[in-house]
Amino acid sequence: MNDPASGNAALAARDLRHIWHPCTQMHDHESVPMLPIVRGEGAWLLDADGHRYLDGISSWWTNLFGHANPRIAAALADQAQRLEHVIFAGFTHEPAIELAEELVRITPPGLDRVFYADNGSAAIEVALKMSFHYWLNQGHGEKTRFIALTGSYHGETLGALSVSDVALYRKTYAPLLLTPFLTPSPDAYEGEPGESAEQTAMRRLGELRALLERHAHETCAVIVEPLVQCAGGMRMYHPAYLAGLRRLCDEFAVHFIADEIAVGFGRTGTLFACEQASVSPDFMCLSKGLTGGFLPLSAVLTRDAVYRAFYAEYGAGKAFLHSHSYTGNPLACRVALETLAIFRDEPVLARNRTLAAHLARRLEPLREHPHVADVRQTGMIAAVELVADKASRRPYPAAERRGLRVYLHGLQHGALLRPLGDVVYFMPPFVITEPEIDRLVEIAAAGIAKAVAGP
């Protein structure tokens, strides 16, 4: 770390010479630092110059049990000496079999079939195609559309973008995308004055019903992120919406796709967000925390009735058409199994409830801040909404990039906070301690004060 050739500046220069980073205007790095990380320890990341950063966002919401978790690392090393990969068409292996069995056991009832893919966006592609193809195999080729929530985000491959409602993406890639029906989000922040979160959810269900009455005949599925619309600004809503959605999907014969890629595996307080409404979707998409942040892997769980619609003699032409080279990768499956074993062996959810309560207490004073319109929380996910005017909830002009100021302040003080626009959020690894939460909130609060001061 004392060698200038392997320090932050040298590694950043080498990076910027060749690498094009995701979700980034690369021009920003003329002033925003590129940080080379060389090691992780629990909730901390260490850069090449020896600086430490408290990972307040679980490195894009993937890390559950800490960076370089020794238990998961040992499982990975063991598997690497046995089998690294094998074609998953016509071949199988025990890690994939055991993982499928465990996923069926822990997910909501009725999800009995597991289809593997590489990442969250790929899982969404699988679910969309599988839903459409199911209806086609059932003789309903007229069902070609999907319903998504306003403000939704489900990934950045073309199908996933097609059911996302992010204005910049839709404007840019519109000629390439399907056009979904959009139904108003049950986002409690957008509720009417005096309306409870549950009342907002019920009102929005009424609007979804009206949409289904007009378009169910051409709709394959409704897709939602249960309880929290994460990349859409950590928008949160009442579980009653999920219960009502399940009823409407049954009534109008459309599928319910639950995108639990970000909200699954304990993030919302239960192992899966759908549990809080006691519902089983027709498709559940999982990724991110599935491997504890170690390796890319995703899974789509569905019902046996869906599987049966594809099960036929070869000549019937009903087989599902989707494959990836690394489908069911043994290394990723073994890591996922070890991650799920930690949930079995340790009181993870109980500990998370204690940590979430502590986080809530520490964030409470920010509710009175003159430029904070909302502090919201669901389990281990919390968000602070910055606005130019509290009374009217008028946002800051996007060009002012107030959230970026919080990010830069965080880096300067040893914390990784990466706001979504002007929404400062917290989604830390489950191994974070209460003193570390204190530190994270203190840095964020100071960053918010700095960000809203002056023009």
Q: Which key terms come to mind for this protein?
A:
Aspartate Aminotransferase, domain 1; 2 domains; four-stranded mixed β-sheet; cytoplasm; 455 residues; globular; Aminotrans_3_PPA_site; pyridoxal phosphate binding; alpha/beta; seven-stranded mixed β-sheet; Aspartate Aminotransferase, domain 2; PyrdxlP-dep_Trfase_major
Low-confidence residue ranges: none
- Our estimate of the beta-strand percent is 15-25%
User: What kind of sheet is the major sheet?
Assistant: 7 strands, mixed
CATH homology superfamily of the largest domain: Type I PLP-dependent aspartate aminotransferase-like (Major domain)
Number of strands: 16
Please report the first level of CATH classification, the CATH class of the largest domain.
Alpha Beta
> What overall geometry do the principal axes of the alpha carbons give?
globular
The helix fraction, in percent, is 25-40%
Helices, by number, come to: 14
Structurally, the number of domains stands at: 2
Q: Can you name the CATH architecture of the largest domain?
A: 3-Layer(aba) Sandwich
Cα end-to-end separation? 39 Å
The CATH topology assignment of the largest domain is: Aspartate Aminotransferase, domain 2
Average pLDDT level: 97
Tell me about this structure:
By secondary structure, this protein is of the alpha/beta class. The chain folds into 2 domains: 4-68 and 348-452, Alpha-Beta Complex (Aspartate Aminotransferase, domain 1), CATH 3.90.1150; 74-345, Aspartate Aminotransferase, domain 2. It is 37% helix and 15% strand. The protein contains 14 helices and 16 strands. The chain has a 7-stranded mixed β-sheet with strand order 4-12-11-10-7-5-6, sandwiched between helices. Strand 2 and strand 3 form a beta hairpin. 45% of the residues are buried. It is found in: Cytoplasm. The record marks 23 as: Participates in the substrate recognition with KAPA and in a stacking interaction with the adenine ring of SAM. Its EC number is 2.6.1.62. This is Adenosylmethionine-8-amino-7-oxononanoate aminotransferase.
